Amino acid sequence: MAVIRCDVALVTLWCLLCAISKTTLSSASVVKLPKGFIACKKDDPGVNTCIQQALQTAVPHLVKGIPSLGLIPIDPLIISQMDIIQGTSNGPLDIKLSFKDLYIHNIGSIKITSMKSNINNYTFNLKADFDEPLVLEGMYNIQGKIIILPIIGEGKSNLTLAALKVSIDINGKPVTRRGDEYMELESLELKFSTSRLYIQLENLFNGDQLLGNNMNMFMNQNWREILKDLQPAFESALGMAFQSVTHQFFHKVPYDKIFN
Ligand SMILES: *[C@@H]1O[C@H](CO)[C@@H](O)[C@H](O)[C@H]1NC(C)=O
Ligand SMILES: *[C@@H]1O[C@H](CO)[C@@H](O)[C@H](O)[C@H]1NC(C)=O
Q: Among 29, 57, 125, 234, which has the minimal tally of Cβ within 10 Å of its Cβ?
């Protein structure tokens, strides 16, 4: 079970609220596609290639944040708190693990490798690789058992995912506001695979170097087992970042300005 409290979600909610209050005060003009974005023709047989290129071109803008669209920066993506409670009879982990002030670096190195869309049905699937490893650094607190070994500690952590690949499924539905049609995001699901998880937990066992080093070595040797249990929490944290951007973008820009 994973419980995630994410700055991104809070900021999105806040942006939503201020967008609502603004539109009730003034009939704000329709947002056009921002600079650096390309519209795609929905009846073009090459529309998927167009979206893929348009999105890739937009990545540097999207990761830096676009204040006019209420988009916050997502590289690094900052997650104030992530709690992972894993206590299963069949899984390798029986732990309480929490992260604070987790910085996720290198989301901006995303390279979209495939795009499949059905624009009339508001569905999209994109696949992407990351050129740089995804580095999650922050403060951790852990207690419990990993496989057979007891573990306890708190301090700095660095979890690094090498050669990350993601697949993202996006589903929306049409809504009309002030005569314009927008896509409202209904769901965004992110799955990933990686060639390797590197784990470094500082200050395990009250700073006992020997025990700490041995445990880090043990975790790195058993990274596959450990990732199996952590993956859903990581997937939803990453998914939330993409969800925030996707939601806000489609909320602000009418659908026919994106696809015409
Ligand atoms: C949209 O989805 C429905 C069913 O979900 C399907 O019948 C229809 O053919 C799809 N439309 C297009 C344009 O593919
Ligand atoms: C985190 O770990 C990775 C892989 O071991 C390493 O390349 C990177 O330099 C580390 N980053 C920090 C900030 O310690």
A: 29
> Count of CB atoms within 10 A of residue 244's CB?
26
Q: Which amino acid type is present at position 230?
A: L
Q: How far, in Å, from the CA of 123 to the mean position of ligand 1? A: 10
> Could you give the CA distance from residue 58 to residue 208 in angstroms, rounded to a whole number?
47
Please report the beta strands in the chain, taking only residues with DSSP state E, as ranges in sequence order: 2-5, 77-87, 93-105, 110-118, 123-130, 134-146, 149-162, 165-177, 180-193, 196-201
Tokens of residue 229, six digits:
């249990």
Ligand 1: distance of its center to the CA of 186 in Å? 17
Decide whether any atom of ligand 1 lies within 6 Å of the 260 Cβ.
no
Q: Which atom of ligand 1 is nearest to the CA of 118?
A: 14
C-alpha torsion 97→100→105→111, nearest 10:
60
- CB of 162 closer than 6 angstroms to any ligand 2 atom: no
Closest ligand 2 atom number to CA of residue 135: 1
Q: Do the beta carbons of residue 4 and residue 243 sit within 8 Å?
A: no
Digit-coded pLDDT (tens) for 89-143:
567 788 999 999 999 999 999 999 999 999 999 999 999 999 999 999 999 999 9
Q: How far is CA 89 from CA 15, 37, 92, 95, in A?
A: 42, 49, 8, 12
For helices 7-25 and 223-252, what crossing angle results, to 10°? Answer: 10
